[in-house]
Write a structure and sequence with these properties.
The protein is an alpha/beta fold. It is 33% helix and 17% strand. The longest helix has 15 residues. It has two domains: 170 residues, Rossmann fold, CATH 3.40.50.1260; 197 residues, Rossmann fold. The structure holds adenosine monophosphate.
Amino acid sequence: MNKLSIRDLDLAGKRVFIRADFNVPLDGNSVADDTRIRETLPTLRLAMERGGRLVLASHLGRPKGKPDPKYSLSPVAARLRELLGRPVAFAADCIGADAEAKTKALRDGDVLVLENVRYHPEEEANDPDFSRKLAALCDRVFVCDAFGSAHRAHASVVGITRYVGQAAAGLLMERELAYLGKAITNPERPFVAILGGAKVSDKIAVVRNLMHLADTMLIGGAMAYTFLKSQGLPVGKSLVENDKLELARGLLEEARQSNFRLLLPADHVLAVSPDSTETKIADVAGTPEGWMGLDVGPKTIEQFSREISGGRTIVWNGPLGMFEKPAFAKGTLAIARAVAAATARGATSIIGGGDSVAAVEQAGVARQISHISTGGGASLEFLAGEKLPGVEALTDAPRKAGTGAN
Ligand code: AMP
């Protein structure tokens, strides 16, 4: 990564504005799942050890540009207090006199959490004046650890970087960029991409980009049905995006012409509705009228697992079936285990998207995955080859001695 890192910063005695991703699920007044908070602890601890005065900002949920206690970061501050084992101050607004006074009261190693930046509509509008006000809360040093928000040009991610002297990546951001960056620039091969989930439309750009980078692509989940139908196969009541049939046909044609291995399910688990537990297994060519495909079948599991076991780089986004329902979870869980087994044999595995992450957790193999991305949307945009505004806005790293032109 050619961006400045928090490791390059001199933070002693400085107020450092850290944009974290504390967009956690709340259960009333407490944090229901603190994974995202824990993911950013190494960055916070490093800043504290270096004598920084930490000003932490994040969004949480969608409060629609106005204060709403349902989306307060106050429970996050409380959880952070427990995790860090030290006091954490809280400012009830992310800009203004109270926030300024509280940042000025910080001493080296102290921590302040600002209230939800999305209480202000200017956050999502990337408003310059609001960005300047956020920047006024630090001593011209900004650290972004919010990979999950890096695909959004918002004030606390992008706008603020204009008004600070240094904008660096936090340790979590660095780790995300290192794994995803290596996969799309210099992957160990074979590179196997697995895509699933509900909609083709969400993943067209990823399919198109990875078709030129990966060696094999395995497509499952509801999105497979748009591809299958585009080939004239019967899909019954399975979810199809009819306005994307032409596109799907074009992508398959492109794959064929470039000899790219793009595999669709050979068989699937069917039911008359997602609520039915009466299921049957059929080849995709034999899908009966009135039934819908809700999981990949045993032949597909076997074939996909074989492909995965040969991979050296494995990227997975999206479940291969409606895995929230036990009757249709088998395929997704089998794929999770196949990815974990390949990783144990030395492959690098990268998983993104809330559902695939939930699936590896459910399969009990999360710890065996090389990298679980904290940003579903951001990782998809990255894999689609798009530049993330929150990364682009960071300060370029100084060129290392010996790498410059003479
Ligand atoms: P996404 O957010 O696009 O990754 O989609 C995830 C959702 O796709 C999950 O809620 C799954 O239940 C759903 N899904 C996956 N496969 C199917 C399928 N064959 N039929 C209906 N929904 C599915």
